[in-house]
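Working notes for the structural subgroup meeting. M.R. asked for a predicted model of this chain before we commit to crystallization trials. I am recording the input and output together here so anyone reviewing the notebook later can reproduce the run.

Input as submitted:
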Amino acid sequence: MLDRVEGILRKKSIDGYELFLDQSSHFYAEVKDGKVDTFQASRSWGISIRVLKRQRMGFSYSTSSGSVQSDVWERVVEDAIASAEATSPDPCFEFAPPIKVLSLHCLHSTRPWSGSRKKRDRKGEVTGRGDPSRGPVKD
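Returned structure, recorded in token form:
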């Protein structure tokens, strides 16, 4: 999914972008008199995109679930770009400078995953990490 979104972003005439993906799982069971009375399991996720175009920052997000089509990702990217075009320029705003490229294999792990934040420039190079209190991101 992130690869598809990045592929769309790289084809656009923008100065940089940032992706944020968050996923969470919830499990709840209640037992009464030795029998399962309530059982709930859910999984949610969301992706947000920030773009920088001509010193203007734009934002868009989606919480669509299941097997979504690439036109959904195209719309989310286009919404972020349209948001940037409707914003006043800020000559002081820019994304952090690039750091080493990180792999995204941690997204394919079977362990519960609490989130990852990676900033990328126009070339797709990682420019920053998210909240360090969430633990290290595997390379």
